[in-house]
Design goal:
Layout lengths: L2 H17 L4 H33 L3 E7 L6 H20 L8 E7 L4 H13 L4 E3 L4 H14 L2 E4 L13 E3 L4 H14 L5 E7 L3 H16 L3 E8 L8 H9 L4 E4 L3 H14 L4 E4 L21 E4 L8 H14 L5 H20 L7 H12 L4 E3 L2 E6 L5 E2 L3 E6 L2 E4 L2
Parallel strand pairs: 1-2, 1-3, 3-4, 4-5, 6-7, 6-8, 8-9, 9-10
Antiparallel strand pairs: 10-14, 11-12, 12-13, 14-15
Helix pairs in contact: 1-2, 3-11, 4-5, 6-7, 11-12
């Protein structure tokens, strides 16, 4: 309401009171009350106009973090790029509940302190929901922050079991226990070996968690682990001693539940020793084919558990792989696929909740979390993906084998 209208309202009130024979004091009081009422009306009108204006230009702001530099940059860049493709598709189709998405990503260098700093940088930019972080250690550090903020969080690839304990946190990938159990199950049902050797990183929660559950399931299935060898972050360049002990024990298959950088050294050193067992890894192995200066022929026959196979022939996978190759010049890995699915699952939860960008971060989180248990999503990493109240996805794993320098889906 413009200022001249306030004056007019007050004047009319005063004239009315005077005409009715009211005293000067009454007339003044009436005029003041009328002016206050008019001011309140103006304030409400201005606030409504501001809200309308904000809504007209509002966008969803999603943020993510992961390593885009350093030894595990393959993972973080894949998450950043996979989510970007999903965001672009959704925006082209009209957005979420009529609002476009802005996608922001920060490098966390796969560190705990840097991950918290990266998350805080995204908060300063106004994110409303968080996809990340990419690696388990940094994800655990950020979980404490998002729980305090009641910020919706879904990790594409943080596998440590405790990540999803807070009510605001969800997971798209398999947890460490699930990977260990499913790996032993796959090896058994496909009769890949009966005598197994294991090398794992005892200083890493990711590797240790997978190994412990693998060992338990292997024992339950009658698979014999003939040798178990460990290494630490302080000693991860020479695996000849571990390999020799496993070879001497007669292992037909070696299980490698750790990241591709160290795995590439294991494969090279086994080749130099003339030791050629079957090798089987988990999601941390994904990326080995794009590791700089690695002879990919050494990975021939390597198997790994994964929720995504880039050579699948369904329309969704073909379209995603084509777009990814056109935009980023390489074949996407499962980290890219999981991030892509994260965006679409968030879209489904937001739409089901009828949410809008003007909601507070906390209210949006509560609305989305209430709908996550009702999600049923057909994505790149599984069909009919649903989520438990514990934040875990329910989907079937796949396994791929490297043939001629490419991942090939195993039956």
């Amino acid at each position: 309401m413009k200022k001249w209208r306030l004056v007019a309202v007050a004047a009319m009130a005063a004239m009315t009171m005077a005409a009715c024979g009211s005293s000067a004091e009454e007339t003044t009081a009436a005029a003041t009350e009328a002016a206050e009422e008019a001011a309140d009306a103006e304030s409400a009108e201005t606030e409504a106009a501001a809200e309308a204006e904000a809504a007209d230009g509002a966008t969803w702001i999603f943020g993510g973090t992961g390593p885009t530099t350093g030894d595990t940059a393959i993972y973080g860049n894949a998450v950043k790029n996979g989510a970007q493709i999903a965001v672009d598709e959704i925006n082209e189709a009209g957005g979420i509940n009529g609002y476009q998405i802005q996608w922001l990503f920060e490098d966390d260098e796969a560190g705990t302190e840097t991950a918290v700093n990266a998350y805080n940088a995204l908060k300063d930019q106004g994110i409303q929901a968080f996809i990340g972080t990419t690696t388990s250690g940094s994800c655990m550090a950020v979980v404490a922050e998002t729980e305090t903020d009641n910020m919706f969080q879904i990790t594409p690839s943080g596998t440590t079991a405790d990540i999803t304990i807070p009510d605001n946190v969800w997971r798209m990938c398999f947890s460490d226990p699930a990977q260990g159990t499913k790996s032993a199950e796959f090896i058994d049902t496909h009769e890949l070996a009966t005598k197994i050797g294991v090398i794992y990183d005892s200083s890493d929660t990711y590797s240790t968690g997978i190994y412990e559950n693998f060992a338990a399931e292997a024992q339950a299935r009658g698979l014999e682990i003939v040798a178990t060898e460990a290494f630490t972050s302080e000693n991860k360049t020479d695996f000849r001693t571990q390999l020799q002990k496993i070879q001497d024990a007669g292992a037909e298959l070696v299980f490698l539940p750790f990241y591709y950088t160290e795995a590439s050294l294991v494969l090279r050193q086994a080749n130099e020793m003339g030791y050629a067992p079957k090798f089987f890894g988990c999601d941390g192995m994904d990326g080995i084919l794009t590791l700089p200066d690695f002879d990919t022929s050494l990975a021939e026959g390597l198997m790994l558990l994964t929720p995504f196979a880039a050579d699948a022939t369904d329309d969704l996978t073909v379209n995603f792989v084509t777009k990814y190759q056109e935009q980023f010049g390489e074949v996407p890995n499962q980290f890219a696929a999981d991030a892509y699915d994260c965006v679409y699952v968030m879209k489904q939860a937001i739409e089901a909740a009828g949410a809008t960008p003007d909601m507070s971060v906390s209210d949006l989180c509560d609305a989305m979390c209430a709908e996550m248990v009702n999600v049923s999503y057909d994505g790149l990493t599984g069909a009919g993906i649903q989520f438990t109240e514990d934040g875990e996805p329910n989907k079937d794993p796949k396994a791929v084998v490297i043939e001629n320098g490419a991942y090939v889906l195993m039956d």
